[in-house]
Amino acid sequence: MSYNHILVPVDGSQISFSAVRHAAEIAKQFNAQLSLISLVAEDPFTDVDFYYSSAIMKEYFVQAYQNAEKALQEALKIADDAGVSAQPKITKGEVSAEGIVDAAKDLKADLIVIGSHGNKGFKKFLLGSFAQDVLGSTELPVMVIKA
Fold first, then answer.
1. pLDDT tens digits along 83-142
2. Which of 34, 40, 77, 90 is most buried, by CB atoms within 10 Å?
3. How far apart are CA 23 and CA 8, in angstroms?
4. Where is the UspA domain (predicted)?
């Protein structure tokens, strides 16, 4: 089995950077394209019962994009250090498993590599598992990298 296009969601956490390291090694072995995405919520206050000003939204978007850019720059350096070039992309939309799956479809990726905390038991019940949600939302192969 080989892969042609690998997608890695990056959120700035060490777990996501670990996923980038693994994905870069796979991309190198298969001479595959590597795409790094960072999701930014279009409206983080959806379904909130108070009104917010456009100044709050502007500040949110400026900070969110700066954080996404910073995370992607660090991820690009990781890929570059592994000898792999990668294409970064900030995607506006829903920060969810569906957002990642939609990005994978749009980019025609054939593998998603995602980091996971590896929580178990009650902690997993309380926090949920984003990686688990991605697994359940796609037919693409998903490689989960545990921290």
1. 999 999 999 877 889 999 999 999 999 999 999 875 554 444 433 478 888 988 999 999
2. 34
3. 7
4. 3-146
SS3 state at 118:
coil
Between CA 70 and CA 66 the distance in angstroms is: 6
User: What 3 state SS string does 33-98 have?
Assistant: EEEEEEEEECCCCCCCCCCCCHHHHHHHHHHHHHHHHHHHHHHHHHHHHCCCCCEEEEEEECCCHH
Q: State the Cα–Cα distance between residues 57 and 55, nearest whole angstrom.
A: 5
The predicted structure's pLDDT at residue 93? 78
What H or E segment, with its residue span, contains residue 146?
Answer: strand 142-146
Q: What CATH number does the domain located at 21-94 have? A: 3.40.50.620
Q: Which residues fall within 8 angstroms of residue 130, CB to CB, at 6 or more apart?
A: 97, 114, 116
CA atoms within 13 A on the CB side of 58: 3
For residue 85, the model assigns a pLDDT of 96
Under a CB-based contact definition with an 8 Å cutoff, are residues 68 and 40 in contact? Answer: yes
The domains of the chain are located at 21-94, 112-138+143-147
Looking at per-residue pLDDT, the higher value among 66 and 58 belongs to 66
